[in-house]
Amino acid sequence: MTQLIIDLQAEKSEILKRYRALLRACKETLQKGDKKMIRRAFDLALESHQDMRRKSGEPYIYHPIAVAQIAAEEIGLGTTSIVCALLHDVVEDTDITLEDVEREFGKKAAKIIDGLTKISGVFDYNSSLQAENFRKMLLTLADDVRVILIKLADRLHNMRTMEFMPREKQLKIASETVYLYAPLAHRLGLYAMKSELEDLSMKYTETATYKYIAQRLNEKKTEREKFVKEFIDPIQKILDEQGLAAKVYGRPKSINSIWNKMRKKNIPFEEVYDLFAIRIILDSQIEQEKADCWKAYSIVTDFYRPNPDRLRDWISSPKFNGYESLHTTVMGPKGQWVEVQIRTERMNEIAEKGFAAHWKYKEAPHAESSGLDQWLQKVRELLNNPESNALDFLDDFKMNLFSDEIFIFTPKGALMQLPANATALDFAFEIHSDLGVKCIGAKVNHKLVPLSYQLQNGDQVEIITSNKQTPKEDWLNFVITAKAKSKIKSSLKEEKRKISEEGREILDRKLKSLKIPSTIENINKITHFFKLHASQDFLYQIAKGGIDIGDLKEYVNFEKNAGYKPFERTDPAEFVKKIKSEEDTLLIGEDLQKIDYKLSTCCNPIPGDDVFGFVTVGEGIKIHRTSCPNATKLMSNFGYRIVKARWNSQKQLAFLTGLNITGIDDVGLINKITTIISNDFKVNMRSITVDSHEGIFDGSIMVYVNDTHHLNNLIAKLKQVNGVTDVRRFDSDITVEKA
Ligand code: MN
């Protein structure tokens, strides 16, 4: 047993020190009486969390103080929010009630804390409840966006202080964060917070890669700083001469964004050229902003040649989340591309602090038609839709969180914003759902196109309708906006309900002739007999002729002879309990027969990989890598179905994995590679595909290996072959798995 010795006196002064730092952070916004109110909130929080400690052993009060500090400093929120941040855990965790809060701090604060308490369980319990809770969270968001901003501050602090949590909790929290909180931060324009949340998640889910990139960045730091200085100096000089007050500096990109680039382009760290961006932050009068930014652009491009394809003007049309900036990529002095971001102090504050800062500047000339308000309006609309499947809703909504936007013109020249990759049909639904359901085609820039046509930025679109048109199932394959999806789904559902009523009539007639009572119980039995799960599907199939009603005679015989066995479902909760009671951790490899598990095909884990188990319905436990593209979704949506797992194989088992080999094609290269694989390493190959193109060799080989150690040795050996330039493990075709 370890003994914890706490110096209470030292702790007390540390708490006060942190409180004073908080006051300094919100100094800018403090008005008369605010300081007193914050003090009262602090005293109440201190008293109610008095005997509570965090996992680290620290006093609990450190947490609400830190959350309040993030809210003030990094989001720029005002006094009410700071009070709420200080009190965000008291109603849930202590005896203090909402009525107490309302009496002491007013209605607004009570409402925000109510919202915070309600959404605290968003990711608990089972999945459907989770999605329902998520919906609640969005309702509060649409009501008062401060709820979600404080929630984000809370999440950020928890992520920053997660090292004392047990591993599976870290994984779960990190997954939720990339799944939902980082996209929300992005959508609300909190870029700095979004990057930090993603980096922190990666630190826990892909620890080795994270450390590797962080270390490489560190090694190159001095070299990079020198380069930045050489790049900046001449520009800074001209800016000064022309009387443009500006801060110019280099800013490193986040580890996660570097990793994304490496994966997307399939390149090693050394080949990522934009490890940093140059920022020029101008101190401009509001009327001069646009002109000053372009002036700075002109100065930069006088010095360095710009890439004409890489100019982005988010000043003339700001992004959805309020982001304004001018981006260009220029050729630096050493022949490498460098991204330059030009904006004013005001634009920069919006870029860093997002929503709250945006509201502060609401009077600014370019900000009035901000996409943020429109977005919140859309959230409200979606929530009012009676679409019942909350989980689908969550998926659709999330997709809309991630995507960038394009601008589309109506025939009359009005401007509409849509997510990138939106189709003509999405546009129709965006204008009006009646236009969507009757849409048969569109004219894009006066040319006829199909419904599924993907719109490009700046297209002018006219929708063509027909009264005979009805929504089709396959429309769901190409529309991407949540609005279009939910409207199509509810129309289809209504359609299906009508058709299955016809099916019921057909079935009833048949049952009558067979003298079987038409009860719900009987219909369910017959549905199962025809191997369907839902009676509505069954009735629908009857009406559509997909099921031959004549086969009902077989059912009668089956009932007589074998009797009816109800469809069996594995209860996942029971399953987990069973496993957990035997062993806290699922050991893979030893108990092959005992537990029914499968290695998932989406990420093909092999021994040595960091893995977890996921309890499926009917297919036992599936083992995924923690870096699997599906992992985040599974862990955040179905946390209760996650089982800890680790490799425990003593036996030499073979696991399938894929290698990607590139090189200069040479006579006998394939032979050399296969010799190493099968003779030197005695590894079995399942398949080998080679593409040779103008002397470049590109091969994929599926091999059976024992573990990551074995695999890494093989990779190292293959890399030594003359002509081979690169060998890497790949994740076989990534398919999104249905849970
Ligand atoms: Mn908290």
Descriptive notes:
The strands form five sheets. This protein has a five-stranded mixed beta sheet with strand order 1-2-5-4-3. A five-stranded mixed beta sheet has the order 11-15-13-14-12. Among the domains are: 15-205, Hypothetical protein af1432, CATH 1.10.3210.10; 214-360, Beta Polymerase, domain 2 (2-Layer Sandwich), CATH 3.30.460; 572-647, no CATH class; 655-730, 2-Layer Sandwich (Alpha-Beta Plaits), CATH 3.30.70. Mean pLDDT is 80; it is low at 123-127, 363-369, 563-570, 578-584, 589-594 and 732-739. It is α+β, with helices and mostly antiparallel strands and 739 residues long. It is globular. Helices cover 49% and strands 15% of the residues. The chain has 29 helices and 19 strands. Helix 9 (146-160) runs antiparallel to helix 10 (167-187). Manganese (II) ion binds next to loops.
Name the features.
739 residues; alpha+beta; Hypothetical protein af1432; Beta Polymerase, domain 2; 5-stranded mixed sheet; 49% helix; globular; disordered C terminus; binds manganese (II) ion
Blueprint of the fold:
Layout: H1 8-25, H2 34-48, H3 62-73, H4 79-86, H5 90-93, H6 98-105, H7 107-118, H8 127-143, H9 146-160, H10 167-187, H11 191-205, H12 207-219, H13 221-241, E1 246-252, H14 255-265, E2 276-282, H15 289-303, E3 312-313, E4 326-331, E5 337-344, H16 345-353, H17 355-360, H18 371-384, H19 390-402, E6 405-409, E7 415-419, H20 424-431, H21 433-437, E8 439-444, E9 447-449, E10 461-465, H22 482-514, H23 520-529, H24 535-544, H25 552-561, H26 572-582, E11 586-588, E12 597-599, E13 611-615, E14 621-625, H27 631-637, E15 642-647, E16 655-664, H28 669-680, E17 684-693, E18 696-705, H29 708-719, E19 724-730
Parallel strand pairs: 2-5, 11-15, 12-14
Antiparallel strand pairs: 1-2, 3-4, 4-5, 6-7, 8-9, 8-10, 13-14, 13-15, 16-18, 16-19, 17-18
Bound molecules: manganese (II) ion.
The site of manganese (II) ion has 4 residues, from loops.
